[in-house]
Write a structure and sequence with these properties.
alpha/beta; globular; seven-stranded mixed sheet; six-stranded mixed sheet
Length: 409
């Protein structure tokens, strides 16, 4: 395997999580006895550009299909984040009814709906037809296709250029990241702005977030690596912000390299220095991550076995992709976790891939009253503990496994 950016042959293994199904490949009732395809989840670090990456073992068009089960609008905190973003961008860049906002991976219109409410013209680009259909119900027009140079060229020929071109949690999802960024160069107006949000590799390393590794994420991104990729396509970073979302993310701001209308913030060099001081440009920094993940595996399995021996009931909340990575790496099945609750009806009455733990609605949680509820999307633990605070009425307790196994008080 060669680096998907700089083509350097890869030999440094960041972490090997064994073989696993795609994390959002939920099973319908009756499929539990059918064979499931498993793919290697082996991640490498490029010793030249320090891009952390997994090979495209399962093709992106097989992952992001019409049965895709992730709908962004089921998280209230994520909707609040999206609304705040639209307010900030409108104020900072003076967007109005004469502007054009394009979102790549627009999902169910969770974000563009807020620009539309301000009478700012929008267009979504979304490869999964079922989420695009949900966006259409909100009045959001979507192009149902994968983004890259080909699609950008087609849209540019229709004079659809963006004043603001954005993508949240999509940059890590593309196997050909150079083609993807090259498409943004084509679609961006001369004075336009690109913003991208993605989980920060620094947080993954420092907080043991190995469960954010799954087949939908082809790359794990530092500011250092992303800056190089954008520069290769004549796009220049002019600002960067740290965000609390998804366990710690970056929002990067980019412009055409020859555009002098946006001043380069001191945040750019500060972030590069922060990553360098943390060792993100030193290959040795990446070489002991396997041991940290293994310790979490031992702790979680031991906890579940102890509760089983004590006659306690354990459930989980949030049928998130990161939860499937955690459960499958640890080899946990439905004999240790009875069920997982999820608010998304597109996931309910299905089985988690490989572990075959049933996904149910919240009424089951109230009826079964488990002693422990493991929060799988730990990045939403504040939202979830507030939503499910009633489990305290029967003595239930919340548990998170990342960055270490913790029973929440």
């Amino acid at each position: 395997m060669n680096c998907r950016f700089c083509a350097t042959p890869l030999s440094d293994v960041f972490i090997d999580l064994g073989n696993a199904p795609a994390s959002n490949s939920f099973l319908n009732a009756g499929q539990e006895n059918e064979p499931e395809p498993f793919y290697p989840l082996k991640v490498y670090t490029c010793g030249k550009c320090f891009l952390v990456q997994v090979d495209e073992y399962k093709k992106s068009d097989a992952i992001f299909n019409n049965e895709y089960v992730y709908f962004s609008s089921y998280s209230t905190s994520w909707l609040a984040h999206a609304k705040q973003y639209t307010d900030n961008m409108q104020e900072r860049f003076g967007l109005d009814q004469n502007s054009f906002v394009i979102e790549i991976a627009s999902n169910d219109g969770y974000l563009l709906q807020y620009f539309k409410a301000k009478d700012i013209p929008v267009l979504g680009i979304e490869p999964t037809a079922n989420t695009a259909a949900a966006a259409a119900e909100k009045g959001i027009e979507s192009v149902i296709d994968f983004f890259g140079v080909r699609l950008a060229t087609e849209l540019a020929a229709q004079h659809k250029h963006a004043d603001l071109l954005l993508g949240n949690n999509v940059l890590a999802h593309v196997p050909d990241i150079v083609d993807f960024v090259g498409g943004m160069k084509i679609l961006l107006k001369p004075g336009g702005v690109v913003t991208m949000e993605f989980p920060h590799l620094l947080q993954l390393l420092q907080n043991n977030q190995f469960d954010t590794i799954y087949h939908e994420h082809f790359s794990y991104l530092s500011f250092y690596s992303v800056k190089q990729i954008f520069e290769s396509q004549q796009l220049e970073m002019f600002d960067v912000e740290e965000l609390p979302t998804h366990g710690g993310s970056l929002r990067i701001y980019a412009k055409h390299k020859n555009d002098s209308t946006h001043t380069i913030s001191g945040n750019v060099n500060q972030m590069l220095e922060k990553e360098a001081q943390a060792g993100l440009t030193d290959i040795q920094t990446y070489q002991n991550f396997q041991e940290k993940a293994f310790q979490i595996k031992i702790d979680l399995i031991s906890f579940l076995i102890d509760q089983k021996r004590a006659g306690k009931k354990v459930a989980a909340y949030g049928a998130a992709a990161k939860g499937n990575t955690l459960l499958n790496y640890c080899g946990i099945k439905s004999d240790l976790i009875d069920f997982v609750v999820d608010a998304n009806p597109h996931k309910q009455n299905k089985l988690l891939p490989a572990s075959h733990i049933p996904v149910v609605n919240e009424d089951v949680l109230k009826a079964k009253q488990p002693d422990f509820v493991i929060i799988l999307p730990w990045n939403l633990k504040d939202e979830i503990t507030a939503q499910l605070s009633y489990i305290n009425d029967w003595g239930g307790q919340f548990v998170v496994a990342i960055p270490q196994l913790t029973i929440l008080k």
